[in-house]
Amino acid sequence: MASNGLWIDIEFCTGCLACEVACRYEHGFAIEEFGIKVVEQVLNGGQTFNFVPIPTDLCDLCVSRTAKGNLKPACVQHCLAQVMEYGKLTDLVKRMEEKPRSTLWSPKPRKADRKPFASAAA
Amino acid sequence: MVTKSKTSETETKIVSSTVWSAGAGCHGGCGVNLHIKDGELVKVEGQESHPYNQGTLCPRALALPEYVHHKDRLMHPLIRRGERGTNTFEQATWEEALDLIQNRMNESRDKYGPESSIFVQGTGRDVGGWLVFLAYNFGSPNWMQALPGNSCYHPRLLSMKVAIGDFVVPDNSQCHVDRYDNSEWKLPECYMIWGQNPVATCNDGNHGHWIIECLKRGSKFIVIDPNYTWLASRAKLWLPIRPGTDGALALGMLNVIISEELYDHKFVEKWTTGFDELRERAKEYPVERVSEITWIDKDLIVEAARMYAKAKPAALQWGVPIDFAPEGFTVAQAINHLWCITGNVENPGGQIVAKPAFGVTSYPMGQDAIEAMYGPMMPKEQQAKRIGVDDFPIVRDLHWRAQPDATIDQMLSGKPYPVKSTFVAGSNFVVAAQDPYRWREAFEGMDFNVVVDLFMTPTAMAIADVVLPSSSFTERDGVRAWWSPLTAQHPALRVGECRSDAEICFELAGRFNKDFQFESLDDLYRFYLKPSGLSLEEVRERNWIMPPQGSDAMPYKRHEKGLLRPDGEPGFNTPSGKIELKSSMMENWSYDPLPFYTEPDYSPVSRPDLVEKYPLILNTGSRTIAFFHSEHRQIKSLRDMNPDPTVELNPETAKEYGIEDKDWIWIENQFGKCKMRVKLSPVHPKIVMAQHSWWFPEKVYEKDYGAYESNVNVLIPGELYSKTGFGGSQVKSLMCQISRVETE
Q1: Distance in angstroms (rounded) separating the CA atoms of residues B254 and B452
Q2: Is domain B608-740 in CATH 3.40.50.1220, yes or no?
Q3: Which pLDDT tens digit goes with each residue over B284-343?
Q4: pLDDT, tens only, B451-488
Q5: Does residue B668 sit in helix, strand or coil?
Q6: What does CATH list as the number for B78-145+364-479+493-531?
Q7: How far from chain centre, in Å, is Cα B103?
Q8: Which residues of B touch A73 (CB under 8 A)?
Q9: Is the complex ipTM more than 0.90?
Q10: Which of A75, B74, B339, B486 could potentially form a cystine with B344 if both were Cys, beta carbons 3.0 to 4.6 Å apart?
Q11: Choosing among A8, A13, A21, A32, which should be mutated to test the B contact, i.e. which has the most B CBs within 10 A?
């Protein structure tokens, strides 16, 4: 059962994509691999204009960084708009209450070991 | 030098340094930790203790390992053996390459005079200062930015210099180590973003996301942009402006603010001159007229002007479309007057004067700074040969650079004196300059061209006789004061035989100047640091140093304290000592001393005859997070974010032309055409928003890497620059037609 997670403020994510690249280098992923992916929402006649970072099943919350003490997950640290926070899910739920238009991620990490269509991974 | 080893089992060395492109592609100065393993850069992280970026980093900086160790990096000097433009380069030693440069450029200097050699930069970044240094030691007064009208920040810089005596930037708390928590700093109540997208870029020493932090903290935004950007979607007001009409909008806002008595009476009375004349000029721009010119609803213009003027404090960030507007210099002057008459100068959360930390000039911008640094090395009669001096008084009196358009003309005509050789560093004008064919032709006519870059580019391929491999900032040593804090760069590794621009220019300067006074680069850095009283060792050890509050590089209210003028008197560093709303310098040069509006040369208003054929407006050059101008197309992490040359169209417009998302389309006008891929977006329906400076590093078998097929600059003529020599060239506002590419 997951006890830690990520809180993400959708209102102020600027879609800079720093999280995608920081994650890739932290984990040594291939360029086609993503531990987090930002999805663009331009919908409803342009009224809805959001970038939504969604971690993938490769996200392990940077356990090697956080285990060492005070290092934040790579995406949280490098996020240019500083819209992500790492912590206990119980605490992060409170962040959601304080700050609407935000989401919570509870991870279930899985090794990158099965790639039925690896060549089309990108 | 702040180098430390981590645990021995990982054997990773971490070198703390400061970004100063090459690599990240910006003017920013982020603190970074470079992770080096077995001599390779494996990871880049932001430094959490660094006040500039506070631990964050953009994807371009994060992807640096791909850039630094890319298979296409130039690793050795190259000398051309066959015809130009046919890829007949052969590897050479540094000695061979530098000897050849020395001999050929000396030959040219002996025969035609030092002024026959020109020194060319792109956006500059860390290179500009070194090119001035090299040009000075060679004896040539001709150093230039490869861009028509100098239309990148220079019109804005000079208009501020003329009006205020200094350059101002929005105050995002960047001068305080404790940043947004600082007790003196104030959050801008209103933030006006004029033709800029802070999300995608850190322009002119301002980190874009500092502005986003102000948004998060509650600043109310006004966004002036023909594109409905993400920031526009978060703004209180969005003003979708017709490209090129920024001058009319600024004058219209000035008129609202003055006629409704919303200006700062006390500040205007005490610190400015020419207000009555400005009031009269602004009256010529009633909001109805401005609305008609700009396509912006008149109530929206009034509301924005009121919101900006009433907010205390109000900050304004501006972008390059202002320079590209017709007579960009005067457009910048009009916008400048908005913060001046509302008292948003040298106040916390307004605009603050940017001065290099500790008085250290690592990148001299004007003649005064150069002479202060290097002394009267260049005789007056030699300075009088600077290209553009006779036609552009600003070049003569204020700006130590050859005027680029006049230089291209002279390269082609050989008049009034011949230009024979060039030294180009960090510029890819074959794709990045407007009318690239003409630029290419001008350089093809030279006897000798040197190109310094990190990758083989279409420009190097087309014109170079010698190519020198430059280094990324991770391989570089240096000091930087742009603006604060003062920072150091530390070489974390070496790649191939690459050398930094500093090393290259230093070596050649010594070869060209028999009276060269510096023993080593360290010697030169110590000379740069002299005004600071700091030792080079201390700067390197500390990595970044913020000047103490109260010193002349730190805000606020320096005009009251006598910290802006060389004579130490209160006031501003202008001829009158006040902010000159009506410029005495402009008047002396026989230019209109007050801001005015000019319609673009090509627009539905000035050329109704072309509307049927070219009904849409072509807006180019908006920034992407993935690339900096023509850079980064070969960096896969970044290219994957933006794989194709992209043109943004409003869905309505696309529908009208039978175009769908991701279709390839032709963009065409009377000057040329190019092919791009559509992204439907909430851009203004009349506007075609095309990315610029595209080429394809992967197309190694095509002429100049396919530099012309998707390069929107072939649609932009070169001659549309401003009368002052500063501004214009309409990359934002030409007319065009679009059609779907029919597949064969």
Answers
A1: 45
A2: no
A3: 999 999 999 999 999 999 999 999 999 999 999 999 999 999 999 999 999 999 999 999
A4: 999 999 999 999 999 999 999 999 999 999 988 999 99
A5: strand
A6: 3.40.50.740
A7: 33
A8: none
A9: yes
A10: B339
A11: A21
